[in-house]
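Reviewers of the previous submission asked for a worked example of the structure-prediction workflow described in the proposal, so we include one complete record here. The input consisted solely of the amino acid sequence. No template or homolog information was supplied to the procedure at any stage.
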Amino acid sequence: MLGKPALKGKKGKKKSKKSTTGPDAIIGQNDQHHDAVLGLSWNKNHRNLLLSASADRTVKLWDLQTATCAHSYHHHQDKVQAVEWHPVESTMFISGGFDHALTVLDSRSPATSTGCRVASDIECVRWDPHAPQCFYVTTEDGMVQYMDVRKLTLTSSAALLPAAAPLFKIQAHDSAVSAFDVNPLVKGCLVTASVDQTVKVWNINDANQPSHVLSRNLNVGQVFSVGFCPDSPFLIAAAGSAGKVTVWDAYANRGVRASFEGRPILNQKGAQVVELNATADKEGNDLVEAVDDDCSDSEHEVENENTMATDDEDD
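From that input alone, the workflow returned the following C-alpha cells.
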C-alpha cells in the first residue's frame, strides 16, 4: 500500500516493521502521501517504476522492486488528479491538477518542465498512442482538448504557465469528463464518460475534426472509470457510483460500424491486422463482432454546436 502509516499496539507502541520487500511490504512507510491518492501510472518500459498523484499536491516516483519512494515532485500548487508515463519516452510523464496546470517532466531532471494552463480543474490526461508527441486532457467543465507537447512552454514554475493552445477541443459533456480513453487498436476512436452518467464514442478523422458517434447510459451511475479492451477494438468497460461494472460492445451499433468502416485495426505493436468492414460476415472474425444492438439511441441523442453529435440508429 502507498503510504500506510506504521501500526500501533494497544499501549500505543509501534509494532515491529514488516519486511521492506516481498508481498507484505508497505511501500513508502517514510515517504507516504499525506492525503488521498488520486492517480496512478505504471511504467511499461521500466516495470519496477510507478507514479502516484495525490491530493497532497505531490507526484511521487516509486521503485516497486525495493518498495521505496525514489523521488517526490512538487511542481503543482493544488491537488494532482492525473498522471501518466509517456508510452515511448520512458522517463517522461505528464500530470494535471486542480491548479489548472498541465505539466510534462523528465523524471530525471524535474527542475524544469514544459506545460500550459487550462480553464478548469483537470480530470484525466492521456498520451495519444498513435501520435506520441500529442496528448489529450479532459476537464471539469466537460471539455476534451488535444495538444502537441512540442508547442508547450518551458518553465521552472507552474505559476508562469501560459494558456493552452489546443490543436482541437470538444465540448464532450455538460458536466465533468471524469473518465476517458484512447482506442489503442483503432486510430481516431475515443471514449469519454461523465458524472452526467453517459458514455460517448467519438471519431477523430485525419484532419483532426471530431464527430460524436454514439452515446449510452450504461446504468452504472456517475461514471468514474472507462476503458477500451486492449485486445478487442470496440469492447468498452465502465464503472461508476452505483458500484457496478458494465462491459459494452459498441461495435454492435450500426452507427459505430458505419463511422469507422475502412479504418485499419492495429495490433498492440501498431501493425495493421485487418480493415473494418461494416457489412462483413461476423463468422470467422472474433476480433470484431457485428451483432446488432437493439437498444435505441433516441433517449441519448446529444446535440453539440461544436461537434456532429447525433447518434446513429441501431439496426
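The longest helix spans residues 254-259. We consider this example representative of the routine output the project will generate in years two and three.
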